[in-house]
Amino acid sequence: MSYTLIGSHPSPFVRRIRMLMESIPFDFREINIYESEGNLELSRLTPVKQIPVLIDGDRTIWDSRIIFGYLSDKHGIARLNWEQDNLLTAVDGALNSGVALLLMKRSGIDITSPLMLVNRHRERIDSVLEFLLPYATNEGLREWNFVTMSLYSFLDWALFREVITLDSRPAYKNFLLTHAERPIVRTTQIPEALK
Ligand SMILES: N[C@@H](CCC(=O)N[C@@H](CS)C(=O)NCC(=O)O)C(=O)O
Prior knowledge:
Structural class: alpha+beta
Number of helices: 9
Low-confidence stretches: none
Order of helices and strands: EHEHEEHHHHHHH
Distance between the termini: 35 Å
Radius of gyration: 17 Å
Strand content: 5-15%
Bound molecules: glutathione
Helix content: 55-70%
Number of strands: 4
Mean pLDDT: 96
Largest sheet: 4 strands, mixed
Shape: globular
């Protein structure tokens, strides 16, 4: 039986799982979590009400990191060591802050204002980008694993949502360019129509 992955095209958390599943067959079911129908469907699937959700027969797995572990075990994909896990936690911090900033924007909050809540999230993203710079300019250019997939998904999405700019961080532009032509990166790219 093949998997069903529930998510959306722009979501970076979903995209990294689609990248991970490059060689694993699955049906992709797109839902709009910000509309009532999609929101209702999501409520039936997960108490956390976030995408992605993976369905494998009678099993429903939520949270992209847990899905990564589940698929790793089932398909012999290499697990991350503790250092890679630390990198992934850093990317996830930036991802969560990016999503929080987007939700603020959509709630009418000016995300360029000096509000404490805004600053906390912005500072986290800046700190993560600073921390990941050695990775993004070395191993991150050579390897393609769940850490690089996650970093790529975050940067591409955050630029698209105008949550970050990379004007002062050309190394990250280079990181994106280095991986942009991978077939799975192209297949999963954020649709032009949404841009
Ligand atoms: N820890 C979760 C985070 C997933 C997440 O934040 N997904 C976003 C979409 S990019 C979402 O569902 N946001 C809706 C919400 O939080 O209300 C994971 O890794 O799957």
